[in-house]
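Exercise 3.2. Students should predict the tertiary structure of the chain below and write it as structure tokens, then compare their answer with the key that follows.

Predict this chain's 3D structure.
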Amino acid sequence: MNINTVSLPAILQLNIDLTDQQFFELCQKNRDLRFERNAKGDLIIMPPTGSETSDRNAELTYQLRAWSRQNKRGKSFDSSGGFRLPNGAQRSPDASWVTMERWNNLTQDERERFAPLCPDFVVELISPNDSLEKTREKMQEYKENGAKLGWLINRQQKQVEIYRPHKTVEILDFPETLSGEDILPGFILDLLPIW
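Answer key:
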């Protein structure tokens, strides 16, 4: 069999029984890959993003970090930051933010590993390998586990889906900016470099 003719899925999902410690060690030993686990414990292996998506993720993280450093109300995280959600899933949003109060309630050991909480704010940026349906399920999972605001940025369709607790998803067509509302007061994401 020629390896060039083998068609592998963009994202691989396996049912492997791992403890939280084993999962953490797997992630640490394989830093070139992105791993997540869903609430059932299935291991999800995602390839690195392409350069275009990586550039846009960096822009997103940069803008969030700049705002977070100025107001000092919380901590911002990039796509390699992992969180253990209340439902047991272990996720790594493309960008996220946690209030300082919630961050300070974590022990040092909890901060060093996958923080046992759902971020207050999450962003997922759809890459060409991502499934829109699966990413929407992830956004709903964040919302159900305590995220107060979530943005799903779909570059291909030039749309943003906004997730808020107890509200239906709001869809914006080709917005130039997004407001952090009262969750991230004063944060305005400039979407033009991301589109």
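Discussion points: The mean pLDDT is 91. The longest strand covers residues 149-154.
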